[in-house]
Write the structure tokens for this entry.
Amino acid sequence: MKIALLWHMHQPDYRDEKGEFILPWVFLHAIKDYYDMPYIASQYNLKVSFNLTPILIEQLQEYINRGPSCDRMLQLLLKKTADLSENEREAVQKLCHTLHPQTMADGLHKRFFSIYEKEKLNDEELNDLEVFFLLSWCGNYLKSSNSYIQSLLSKSSFSQNEKEQLIQTLFAFLPSILPLYRLLQDGGKISIATTPYSHPILPLLLDINVAKEANPAITLPKHPLSLQDDAILHIQKAKEIYKAVFGKNPKGFWPAEGAVDEKSIALYKQEGIEWIATDEVILQKSGGSDKYSPYSFNGVKIFFRDHELSDLIGFVYKNLPAEEAVKDFAQRLPKKGTLFVILDGENAWEHYPKNGWDFLNTFYKMLEKQNSVTFDEAASLTSKKLDRLSPGSWIYGNFDTWIGDEEKNRAWELLFQTKCDTLHHTQDPFIQQHFLLAEASDWFWWYGYGHYTEFAQEFDAIYRNHLIAIYKHLGIVPPTDITTPIVGSHTMQAFLNEPKGYIYPVIDGKVTSFFEWLESGYLDERVSSTMQSSFTIQKLFWGENEKSLFFRIDAKDVKALDFRIFFDEDEVALKREAKETIVEIEIDKSSCKKKYFEVRIEIFKDQKLLQIIPSTTRLFIRIDNDYSKNWFV
């Protein structure tokens, strides 16, 4: 039995149309994950593969070449807190509250928690929170090897000069990241793959009708165009960036989101790509059954990801002690064949203690006893022939995550409209570049239903501004519909997302942490165009864990409100309830008569019925879910 492990490293392009970084996630993951991941693997006698997307590489190089001046949020962090405007203070504090304090605050002075939980901070406290935030994002390598960072970890308060020196220290570290990958690749320790340039769903660029082939019930955007020329550019540009950094052409690609179809396979073959990888669900839909074998289709090797084992690492083992998690993984290994494990190599570790240090070291010790191979090496193994390749992605084997609802389709229609308006200018390098950036999968991921982010408006603006920039470059006034935000413009009167995993909120009536309700279901009552002004409920969250069902209600003047909750037509007893800035409610799952029911919540003020939620849709909840279907790479 052979094990082929691939860590996928990707962040979308956070630069606006002028090249300024709007959000700093590439920088933050650079100091936390991008060096640590190959470094830890290099300490063991095993072989590992990494997938680095071109758009990630390009952004890393931008930070190295331009420094903090290219990043809007880092510029705010560098300012003296006394000089920040009220809006800037809110933006900084919002950013600092995106960290996961239960795991990422390891090693910080205990004072961090007291200022993290405060809503209003004075200048000194906000400065300290900024430094704590940056320290929390430092990876294990930096914390163990950099003397200046070590000197800050034991401190409870920081000066402006210390904050500035910390940021300078972190930027001085960035140039060491990509050379480490090349060094390990040249030494045969790792292989490196890549993805089409901006992480597009390549099959949809070639022909959006492939989405209906994967799901006949889907609604497609109006007036589509084939973007095949752009699809080819995505592959060619990825090869150019890869060769410039790693000194040779890539052998393999992880298609963005494992999205494949027969037309995109033909393009990969045309461009000299030897192997690609996708999820086992595609193998099942294509008539194959042995996921522990490489396959060959139209001259390209295809590896099929073991969905369960990959997602156990990404989303489950964070809750177990390292030894127990690795023991569980080892017990699930097949007896023969080649196991392909592919998952996100950066985001998972925010939820692991010590940024995954204990798990990864224990995991690699176990892998040393196995026969590990790189994905490039796996391409030389005997393969089975695949007669057909079903189109789809790793999520349900279709493309519904990126196309099909009103907001997602609107984004595609604006893209097609801009392409149609500028067909005679597509050879202009400026125009080509902005089309490639607008075609990234990440924008369509956040539009519409399925996922929720506090930064939806920022992502919407980045996407549309790429299209707006094309018109402005040509001296044309951008159409009004492109300057109009897509987020929240759909006619559905409630915005609903399903839960993605277990939650463990503290029932105290406060937002204890950004991540407390992150995996919950979400319903936004504010988007209703018919909501009366007297209605106070803004958002409803819900979720579960092993024993309890939870509800959170965001509203005005919550202390004055009372609530009755009905499952179908039966009123349920509340185990615990807290009302401070929000309402948090816990219900014992053992009191639930059914596993699937409709939820209705009645809101009272002074014993008078004020509102019933949901007000514009019907909410059905299922408990004891298998949340693995919602996990994503």
Notes: The chain has a mean pLDDT of 91. The chain has 26 helices and 21 strands. The two ends are 25 Å apart (CA to CA). The first helix runs from residue 25 to 34.
